[in-house]
Specification:
Structural class: mainly beta
Number of strands: 15
Helix content: 10-25%
CATH topology: Fumarylacetoacetate hydrolase, domain 2
Number of domains: 1
Largest sheet: 8 strands, mixed
């Protein structure tokens, strides 16, 4: 799996309350949606093309977050990422086949004057996080193994874990399963360059229609601590995607500290902020 050859997308507004907490709800006031729970847009965070500007820089790391040189508060965004094969009919996307999933940090700079979502997402190498341990997807339909998973997030500062994201079931996403995939496919074919959105067909063309994509499907809500604290050098950003039938939310910190967890039912991402 050569992740430098994938195209990377994120989903904005797929978890109730997150955009408001992140101060980004107003960015999407003019984006039309068909129903209240619909996500707002998808955005590129990595496009494997020398012509893609800042998006051409490979941003994923499984162990480091590089603090940006420019000013701006940086927050962890805990998510599930799915690794998919893209199915085309010519240059048109006709389907996505999810193959693997894992813990993801859609680390973001809070830039209130950014023109595009993507401008907050990739500031160079190690500006994003993906667990080195991705788990197999049996089916992305309702009833699949992913339905029993949960997302937890912590900031570790001065040796102490602080709950940063609200421990949440993966099925709490507003759009999930086939409904999410169908909506993403539509965005891949039709999302225009408008307001905070990038033209997705143009990004796919720039990347010469890659075979695979990594899609982060949306950030969960913050705890009060997460909403009001930003990453500093020396912190650790921690995102855990775990089987909720095997582990309890209140035990996750102890499990992390012991190191006694199974790579078959827990995807862990720990990044040192440098």
């Amino acid at each position: 799996m050569d992740l430098t050859k994938i195209i990377g997308f994120g989903v904005a507004g797929n978890f109730a309350g997150h955009l408001e907490q992140a101060g980004e709800a107003s960015d999407f006031m003019d984006v039309e949606v068909k129903e209240e729970t619909q996500p707002k847009a998808i955005f590129p965070f990595y496009v494997p093309s020398k012509d893609a500007g800042f998006l051409s820089e490979f941003p994923l790391s499984s162990n480091t977050v590089s603090a940006p040189e420019t000013d701006g508060n940086v927050q962890i965004e805990p998510e599930v990422a799915i690794y998919c094969k893209i199915q085309y009919d010519g240059t048109r996307v006709v389907g996505l086949e999810p193959l693997k999933f894992g813990a993801y940090n859609d680390c973001s700079i809070r830039r209130p004057n950014a023109n595009k979502i993507s401008e907050k997402k990739n500031w160079g190498a190690s500006s994003k996080g993906l667990s080195a341990n991705l788990l197999d997807i049996d089916t992305f339909a309702e009833g699949g193994i992913l339905d029993q998973y949960r997302i937890a997030c912590f900031m570790k500062r001065d040796g102490e874990y602080h709950a940063y994201g609200a421990d949440s079931a993966v099925v709490e996403y507003s759009y999930f399963h086939t409904k999410l995939l169908d909506w993403i496919v539509d965005c891949m074919n039709n999302q225009p360059n408008s307001g905070p959105m990038d033209c997705i067909p143009d990004q796919l063309k720039l990347a010469d229609y890659p075979e695979y994509t990594l899609i982060s499907v949306g950030a969960t809500r913050y705890t009060e601590f997460g909403e009001t604290h930003f990453l500093q050098k020396g912190d650790q950003a921690v995102v855990v995607v775990y089987d909720g039938t095997a582990y309890q939310p209140e035990s996750i910190v102890a499990v992390l500290e012991s190191g006694e967890y199974s790579s078959s039912n827990m995807s862990v991402l720990i990044q040192d902020v440098k």
